[in-house]
């Protein structure tokens, strides 16, 4: 029987994840209509922060898609969605500064980020096989397959947990830098917090779902051992 008491908690976590996604979009849309007093666009904020933190070689590119913003450590490029790149709203500059935060982490060899980069090739491999191993283990009642699947899935969960301090640190850097450089005013900090905290919540929810699923699989594994 695949149903497990932990499924109830996982469903709650899924509910939190869905709510977090709506909150991200809601906060972004709300603060995307509020212009900053400086009038700087997301691209301008990103460029100035990069230059002032000795990263003039890091490029900034506009990309299609909403909330598709990210920092590419391989190409050393900050990619901003068009809304963020060209926008001068509190939402735009918040997201742009957050991605610059990742570039600065990379420059300073921030521990959690470096660990995540090293783990990525392994996690990219294990996360692809874990679902099939677990499914095969449950279908054929094979504890060895389930155990291997748990090990592979653990790597993916660890990757998500390590992502949390990386994201929170990037947001913290973003707020500190923008205030220090006069890019936002104190009264605008509330909007910045709303945008960045909502985004961080999505990572927390995703990590919680994966962690609860891992606990469920481990409990099933040990229960199967006892029955044998």
From TrEMBL:
Segments passing through the bilayer: 6-22, 122-140, 146-168, 200-222
Pfam family for this entry, one: Zn_peptidase_2
Keyword Transmembrane: yes
InterPro entries: Zn_peptidase_2
Record key words, sorted: Membrane, Transmembrane, Transmembrane helix
Alphabetized PANTHER family for the sequence: MEMBRANE PROTEASE YUGP-RELATED
Name of the protein: Peptidase
Taxonomic source organism: Peribacillus saganii
């Amino acid at each position: 029987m695949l149903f497990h008491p932990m499924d109830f908690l996982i469903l709650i976590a899924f509910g939190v994840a869905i709510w977090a996604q709506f909150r991200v979009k809601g906060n972004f849309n709300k603060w995307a209509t509020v212009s900053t007093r400086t009038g700087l666009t997301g691209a301008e904020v990103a460029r100035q922060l990069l230059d002032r933190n000795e990263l003039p070689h890091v490029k900034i590119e506009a990309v299609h898609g909403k909330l598709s913003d990210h920092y590419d450590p391989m190409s050393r490029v900050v990619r901003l969605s068009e809304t963020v790149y060209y926008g001068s709203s509190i939402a735009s500059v918040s997201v742009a500064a957050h991605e610059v935060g990742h570039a600065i982490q990379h420059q300073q060899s921030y521990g959690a980020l470096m660990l995540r980069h090293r783990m990525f090739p392994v996690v990219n491999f294990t996360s692809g096989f874990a679902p099939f191993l677990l499914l095969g283990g449950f279908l054929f009642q094979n504890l060895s397959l389930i155990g291997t699947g748990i090990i592979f899935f653990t790597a993916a969960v660890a990757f998500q947990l390590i992502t949390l301090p990386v994201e929170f640190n990037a947001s913290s850097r973003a707020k500190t830098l923008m205030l220090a450089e006069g890019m936002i005013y104190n009264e605008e900090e509330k909007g910045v917090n709303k945008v960045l905290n909502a985004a961080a919540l999505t990572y927390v929810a995703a990590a919680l779902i994966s962690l609860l699923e891992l606990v469920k699989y481990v409990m099933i594994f040990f229960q199967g051992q006892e029955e044998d």
